[in-house]
Amino acid sequence: MRTASRYLLSLFLCLGLLLGAGSARADQPDAQNWPRPRFLTYNVCGGVCAIYQGSRTAWRDTMIHAMDSWDADLLMLQEMCYGQWTLLRDTLAGRTSGGPAYDSVWGAALPESAGCAKWGADTRYGLAIFSKGPAGTIDQSSRAVTFLTQPSGGEQRILLCARTGVRGRTVRACDTHIDYRGANPQAQVAQVAAVTRGYALEGPVVLAGDFNLFPKDTRLDPLYDHGGGTGIFQEVDENDKSHFTGVDCPQSGDRCRSGEETAEPVCSPRADGRGKIDYIFLSAYWFTTVRGDAAACTPGMSDHHLLRGAAAWEH
């Protein structure tokens, strides 16, 4: 009995690392009082990081627990191996008890990645979107993969988008992973902004992913609709005053290009500095009351923090 108790306590603590918010903060999420819809984005480090606890099942179950605990309507995943996607997809697609089913869509950035062999024979590597609901929640015919320009060379990056139902509305969900090299960030963000601006003419847009840029970086100007930006988006973690810094982010303000760090040395030993590099952007016309929170680092799950977001419908 004591052995079983210790196992359950260990499992609870491991899950708490992913789902907990670390030390107390003003924006710590409240599952009852934060608005809906709800969003998650996570760079899962599928090719580079070892499998969590050496178990595909442990990785899958921890991801599902994070989704269920947050009651996520949309989940965007980056650096995802094809075998990871199918493992999560096959479990969630037909789920009839213990939580909702999720529909999903996948996009390959690379035709193969050696680091993905631990997830199965198909070593494709890319992005995935999960949307709460049965098969057909995502309009698979709307699936679009845009290959992003890379003037400085390096690993191919993509933008994955699809129309999906979210709490009775049709939303365009988009997922991306911006490169960090040379001129690539500026060129790729501008391309993503142009594509998603077009989608916003049709209705709500949710754009999430790993952008490898800090919030005040001018290369993000094409996305933000404030703080010097020229875009159409607000970001879920832009109103947490505990992260307002600099003369352009006074405590008297309501929002700022800021947010809680999602990369830092403990979780991301390869990170160039520490700060927020993962984002959930919401088209400003359609969403209001945005809230955001980065979960604590979960060693072994990823070298990023999972980012949670919430908002209410504006229209």
UniProtKB/TrEMBL annotation:
Keywords: Endonuclease, Exonuclease, Hydrolase, Nuclease, Signal
GO molecular function: endonuclease activity; exonuclease activity
Any one GO cellular component localisation term in the record: membrane
Coiled coil regions in record: none
Keyword Hydrolase: yes
InterPro entries (UniProt xref): Endo/exonu/phosph_ase_sf, Endo/exonuclease/phosphatase, GPI-anchor_lipid_remodeler
GO BP: GPI anchor biosynthetic process
Signal peptide: 1-26
Pfam family, one: Exo_endo_phos
Designated name of the protein: Endonuclease/exonuclease/phosphatase family protein
PANTHER family linked: CALCOFLUOR WHITE HYPERSENSITIVE PROTEIN PRECURSOR, ENDONUCLEASE_EXONUCLEASE_PHOSPHATASE DOMAIN-CONTAINING PROTEIN
Gene3D superfamilies cross-referenced by the UniProt entry: Endonuclease/exonuclease/phosphatase (3.60.10.10)
Residue ranges of every copy of the Endonuclease/exonuclease/phosphatase domain listed in the record: 40-292
Lineage: Bacteria, Bacillati, Actinomycetota, Actinomycetes, Kitasatosporales
